[in-house]
Each structure stands twice: as structure tokens, then as C-alpha cells.
Amino acid sequence: MLDILRRLVQAVTDAATLDEALTIIVIRIKQTMQTGVCSVYLLDESTDRWLLMATDGLNPESVRSASLAKTEGLVGTVGSRGELVNLDDAPNHPAFRFLQETGEEIFQSFLGVPIVHQREILGVLVVQQTTQRKFSDDEEALLVTVAAQISALIAHAKVSGRLHLSNMDGEQPIDVHFKGVAGVSGVTTGTAFVRQPPANLRRVKDAKTDNPEHELEEFQTALGEVKAELRQISDSLSEHLARKETALFDTYLRMLEDHTLSGEVCQRIRSGETAPTALKHVVSDLVARFEAMDDAYLKERATDLLDLGRRILAKLLHEQSESLDYPDDVILVAEDVTPVMLGEVQTRSLKAIVSVKGSANSHVAILARSLGIPAVMGAVDLPLGDISGAHLIVDGWRGEVIVEPSEHVLSEYQRALDDAASLEMDLEQIDSGIATTSDGQHVHLMFNAGPFGELSERQRSWIDGVGLYRTEFIFLARSRFPTEDEQESEYRAELATYSPAPVVMRTLDIGGDKSLPYFSIDEENPFLGWRGIRVTLDHPEIFLTQIRAMLRANSGFGNLRILLPMITTLEELRASKALIQRVVRELTAEGYAVEAPQVGVMIEVPSAVYIASELAQEADFLSVGSNDLTQYLLAVDRTNARVADMFDGFHPAVLRALEMTSKAGIEAKIPVALCGEMAGDPLAAVLLVGLGFNELSMSSAALAQVKRALGEFSSVECRMLAEEALTRESGVQVLRIVAQAFIDKHLNLLVPPNLRESLEVGIA
After folding, report:
1. Residue 442: which of 462, 456, 468, 458 has the closest Cα?
2. Measured between alpha carbons, how far is 679 from 701 in angstroms, rounded to an integer?
């Protein structure tokens, strides 16, 4: 069977069109299984009918004309149920439907299997035979396997616009949608500008030189020119971005100056390679190393390095800089959009970015978020060669790109654009001052601080401090462990910025999806492995150095709180507190004026939820990391496209875990915070307050919406909504009641457009 499948898959792969591929499939399967008929039916969503798309054995004139209603006939039974049907007397089955145009009345045996892609039923694969018999288990297995193999092919043809079923009157335009990952929320329209990479390292042929000094000079000149360009782009962006965002380009400059890159290139040149050859090998090696890492942040560094390598190569080859004539409403599109590409566009004309590669956590997505423009990442099916100059809709809510949209679709999206503009105007009216419910309960809004993102003065008045400062970024930005003094300088700057408000600093949280290039953690299952507090307790020298830096930085401020990640046992909390107390004693003995800080526990694994009461007795505060907690509770990796849609913070299991945690903190009379994405979702924020959370930590972009929502609900209404949510059986049901509550409060615009549609709630 494997050999049959291999040959079939190869033949299908070589097919020029989907129709050709489907024809190959039905012919090959009919021959292999020695049946009278093999057919493929696909679901035409415009008519909600199963359309005969290919057949070997039925009347060929019935292709694309014969069809069945969604629940009609044996095909409808297979498709609507999503399960296999194997019959030896099909005409006498109650669901049998006679289609005269196909000539199938002579066939007795029937075997049909659904064609499914990521839980969506796309079609039905059918074999039929004149004799009465049950198809064997091996035959069932073959057909199921073939259906699974062709599902991706059909799905790709569907999203790329290459699958055309019926088209009503034949004149109605077909809107071509491409799915990606929602990088930055928002909707916009504009003109696609496809940016090609400056040069191709792969095309560099290996070559030797007799004049290494000349090659070294050429390399240094090229390096200097790229540095100058980066500084120019950084200066240009500094008018529109905060200091921390433009500091990214300082990181790029350090990468160019790092001995790992420039030093290794120079070494290879001295050994006799030309500068382009040496550059190719060094950059390719570094990119491969970063791409092999599990950490999402470090994977993105591979893109940065590759872009820098291409830019140096362009200078080495003395290629003329591409004349970039951007349209006034440019949507920047590339296989891998980089921050430097983004910086080359006049910010006032940049409407959105679309990247075939990349994630919502990439540098360019973070910059797009800071610029306030929508972004779609990971649009793998996007045909770059065909869309330059095309009119696009970029839907950052759904992670979708629509090419040359029809007037009908444009009008639908115009309503979304109008809603977004109305929401922005509404949020501009929010008063300064702390966040409260409508009956005056103070809700502590906290800020998730990191290498990117700063607050306006108005936003500063809304927050009560920093709820999460990720210290790992200090470690990730270097090629070695930062010294105590280097850490102290970074921490002091953060504490000073927000003083006297509290700043919650999480100790080094590596492992899982974050590993350091100089401290690699190679595990088959890193999320269930050596990560968080486990690493730093096993390496107390790392933990002690970091705590010393934090306590020294806190001298004179007194607003430091320390948060311990990935705590699963009381022993880990006690061991960490003992090390912190040791540092307090040592620094005091050295003459530093330090004080013991508040120490909190991050609740991000199920075990911590179940011992939250015990942890609350020994910790000064609890802080839920809802992103990881949800992933662990639901066994869902939200970066995995196959299961990402199952990531659901409103799932009953998640809500009940949050309730258990908040009760533990309330009973122990300590603060209970939440610092995941749920905190920044206004719908979730209202529930969280109802569940007893008194601190919500979020990005700067989410502050206004959350403050606006909380101001319309009383604390009693929040509790009642949370109590009702806890009785529901699914996240969808929870979302329905919360969305309806928002609409009843005339907060329609705070409900995302895609959610409004999916819930089919009436909007006044």
C-alpha cells in the first residue's frame, strides 16, 4: 500500500491543475481497487451542495453538473457525519439518492470516506461496484489514507483561489482569501508592494582570492555602509516610535559588530576565501543555528541575521540599491518582512504588512503593533509573484488577506473600518486616572514591560505599576550571560521609570520556547522539561547574580517585587526564598542598603493551581500566567496551526482554574494578578474582575479598551457574569453571554468583528 500511495502522491504532485490531480486520483484508485467507479465530490459553499468534481465510471458529462444537497444521499451522509460508510447493498439504504445523470443505478456496493482538513470537511471520496460485497479493511484503510493525502491539496487550492466550483451566474467575481496568523489586530486596504530581498546568498559561488587584504577592505567598507543605512533608518523611525522600539536597530548594529559574525568572516577571508564566499558560509551557519532553536524569539533572530547578510552582500557585489517607488497606500509584502524593510517605507504611507514567514512575536510584528498598523504573518499560500500592485484587504483580526476584493466585500470591510475609527474616537474620550468599575471599585491595571513599548502620559495615569517585566530579554540580547553590573543598570532604569509604583520582575525564565544561544537546552519535549525556576535552582550562580543585581537596583526606590516562574512545588518556592534571603544578608554585610522584597509565585501549570492555597500562605502575591496555563490545561500549542484554534481562555476548565487561584489569594489576603493575554482582552477582563482578580497586567495597546469596559460594569455585574460563565459547558457559550452583556451596555465596538459574526449576536 505504501508503494501505491507513494506513486499516487507523486503523480498528483506533478499535476498542473487541481482538476488534473483529481482525475489522476479517481483513475488510479479505480485501477488499484478494481472497482467499477471512483468519484470525488467537493462541497460548494455557495450552494451548500456536494458537487461531482471527478469520476471514473460514472457519466463523464455529469462532472460539475451532478450535485446533492448537504445531507442528501449516501454522499451527504458521509459528508455531514464526517465518518466512513461501507455498504454491500447501497440502493436499499434509506439514505440512498438516485441521480439519473450519473448512471449509478447498476452499482450495488458503496464505500465513501470524508476528505477532512483541519476539522473542515471539504469533500467525499467514493468507490462503487456492481457486485454486492463489503469492502475489506485494507480497502477502507487505503481510501482513508488517500483522502487524508489529498485534503491538503484541496485546501490549498481553495484558499489560493484555484478551486472554482460554481459561480452563480458566471459573472459574479470570486474573492480570493489567503489565511495566515493574526499578527496585529485591525483592518485596512491598500496596494501591495512586494519587496524582494536585496541579494541572494545562495547564489554566491565558492571562490578563492589571491588578495585577502583587498577582500578584507571590501568587507569592512560594505559593513560600514550597512551600519550607516541602519542608523539612518533608526533616525527616521525615531520620529514615530518610542526609544525602546528604535533600540532594536542598536541590537542589529551590535550583531554586525559581534565577533561571531564579522570576526568569523574576516578569519575565512584571511584563509583565502573571497568576501562574498566567506559571508555566505558564516551567515548560513549562524542562520541554521538559530532556526534549530525552539525559542520563538531566537528563531526570529535568524531572519534578522539573514537580512543583514543579504544587505552586506549587496554592498559587496556593488549592486545598485533598488529604486523603491512605494504607492501612497502601501501594504508591504515579502517572503520575510524585516524591520529594516519596514523602516525603508515612509511611515505615513504604510498601511499594513503581510509576511509569508514569521510570527506574531517577530520583531517586525512588534514594530507594526507600535506603529498601529495591521499585520498578517505566516501567509504561506500567498503567491508573491502574482500580487504586486494588487488591491488588498488586510484583516489583522482574522489573520486574512483578500486579493482584489469585490465591491460587496469592500463594503463589508468598510463597515469594519468605520467601526475601528469610531472605537478610536471613543477611546480618545477616556479620562485620566486609575481604572474603576461603575460602582467605584479600584481595579489595578498593570503594564507588561519589556524591550518594546512605552506609555503616554495619559496611559501612565491609568496604571498602578508594572505587572510583568521579562528579564530574559536582557539575556537574549547578548552573546553571553550579562554581568551583575549590566543587569543592575537595566533593572535600575526600569525601577526608576515607574517609581514609586511597584515593578514586578520575573526571574530568568528560559527553557520551553526560550533558550539562550550560549546556554542551549536541547530536549525532545522542552515545555515539560528543564525550564523556569528549575534551571535557576539547578544553577544558583545565575539566580544569585540576578537577585543581587535586582536588590542593588532597588536601593533607594523600594518598589521591586520578584516573581518566580514555573513553580510546581512548595519546595521550589522555599528554596528560592532562602536564596533571596541569603543575598539580602550578603549585600547588607557588604554595606548596601537593601531590603527584603515581596516574592510572588507565577501560577502557570495545573499543579500550582491545585496547591495555590498552600503557595498563598508562603508567597506575598500570586500572578497567573494565563497563556501557559491555558496551553497546559488544554494540551494546546497555540503556535501549532493544526490546534491553535483550540486555544481558548474562556474554556470552562480555564475559568475554574482561575477561580480556584483567586480564592486561594483572597483567603490568604494577598494580591492576585493575571499577566497573560486574557488581561488585555476587555471581554475577559470583566470576567476576571468578577472572579476576584484585583490586578490585570497587559500591553500598552490594551489599556484603553480594558479601562473603557470596566467603567461600564459594576463589581456586582462582573461577579454575576462570572458566576453565570462558570455554569457554561464551553468557551463558545461563555463568549456568547459576555458578548451579549457588552452589546447590552452599548460596547459593541469592543467585541471583535469576527466574534460578532461567529456568535450571530444582534448589534443595535
Report:
1. 462
2. 12
Among residues 343, 269, 283, 286, the alpha carbon closest in space to that of 313 is found at: 283
Rounded CA gap, 379 and 398, in Å? 12
Q: Find the length of the chain.
A: 764
For residues 135 and 111, the answer to whether their CB atoms sit within 8 Å is yes
Q: Phi/psi of residue 477, each to 5°?
A: -80, 0
The DSSP line for 205-226 is PP-B-S-HHHHHHHHHHHHHHH
Residue with cell 478610536: 424
Cα angle: 193, vertex 197, 202; to 5 degrees: 150
Phi, psi (rounded to 5 degrees) for 431:
-70, 160
| CATH T-level assignment (fold) for domain 201-316 | Enzyme I; Chain A, domain 2 (1.10.274)
Q: Homologous superfamily of 430-727 in CATH?
A: Phosphoenolpyruvate-binding domains (3.20.20.60)
Q: Is 591 exposed, middle or buried (0-12, 13-18, 19+ CB in 10 A)?
A: exposed
Distance CA 314, CA 279 (A): 11
**Of all helices (H) and strands (E), which one includes residue 165?**
none
With H, G, I as helix, E, B as strand and everything else as coil, classify residue 181: strand
Give domain limits for the chain: 2-159, 178-194+326-409, 201-316, 430-727
Per the listing, cell 529604486 goes with 323
Same fold, 2-159 and 178-194+326-409: no
* Region 2-159: CATH code: 3.30.450.40
- pLDDT block averages, 10 residues each, the chain of length 764: 69 70 88 90 85 90 87 90 90 83 76 87 91 89 85 70 50 64 83 84 88 91 86 71 59 67 87 92 84 61 81 81 76 86 79 84 73 84 80 87 84 78 83 93 90 72 93 78 92 93 94 70 76 90 96 96 96 97 96 94 96 97 94 83 79 97 97 92 96 92 91 96 96 92 88 67 42
Are 159 and 179 contacting, i.e. CB atoms less than 8 angstroms apart?
yes
Q: Which of 117, 177, 363, 651 is catalytic?
A: 363
- The CATH class for the domain spanning 178-194+326-409 reads alpha beta
Q: Look at residue 252 and give its three-state secondary structure.
A: helix
**Is 449 in a helix, a strand, or coil?**
strand
Hey, is 424 helix, strand or coil?
A: helix
Is 675 designated active site? yes
Catalytic residue among 38, 266, 675, 718: 675
Beta bridge partners of 516: 519
CA distance 620 to 669: 9
- Residue 563: partners with Cβ closer than 8 Å, 6 or more residues away: 468, 504, 505, 506, 507, 599, 600, 601, 602, 623
Q: What is the distance between the alpha carbons of residues 600 and 283, in angstroms, rounded to a whole number? A: 42
**Calpha distance 277→565 (Å, rounded):** 44
C-alpha cell at 693: 482578580
The question of whether 718 is a catalytic residue gets the answer no
Q: Classify the C-alpha dihedral 697-533-603-626 as positive or negative.
A: positive
The closest of 105, 68, 71, 69 to 90, measured between CA atoms, is 105
Contact status, residue 149 vs residue 334, Cβ threshold 8 Å = no
